[in-house]
Amino acid sequence: MSSTPSPTTTDEISWVLTPLLELPGVLHAVIATGDGLVEGASDGLDRASAERVAAMTATVHAAARAFTSAFTGTERPRLAQTVVESDLGYAVVVPAGENTSLAVFTSPEAQLGNVAYQMQVQVAALGRALASPTRQQDTTVRS
Q1: Could you tell me where the DSSP H helices lie in the chain?
Q2: Residues of 114-128 as b/e, b for ≥16 C-beta within 10 angstroms?
Q3: pLDDT tens-digit map of 54-66
Q4: Contact 110, 89 (CB under 8 A)
Q5: Which of these, 77, 87, 90, lies nearest to 116 by C-alpha position?
Q6: What does pTM read for this prediction?
């Protein structure tokens, strides 16, 4: 029996990863900036691996955008997802808001439709959380 990796607790938005890491076949997850920096990562990845994944996420997304542009002549197409299939599994990258991407790596047996759907659910939750105004502490004195 293997345990499901949990997101690091030091990253404020890593809570987005928890439901994804609970899906059958999802092995790792990373939230990355558009310039390839780690915003959150699953515990199953060491820091160096998470940084490489974040850098490659930005590169893969940029390449997919350029590839689509080459076919369509569209200057900046909006990507829904980028999927890389290998004998080891699938890497799936989706935009997760302004200058942010969400990437997961799954086993070959993972149900990609379910994984992709749950990634979109978590991206929507992240968007709502980031759009919500920060709660201010009530400093008024009540008598």
Answers
A1: 17-21, 47-72, 112-131
A2: ebbebbeebbeebee
A3: 999 999 988 999 9
A4: yes
A5: 90
A6: 0.80
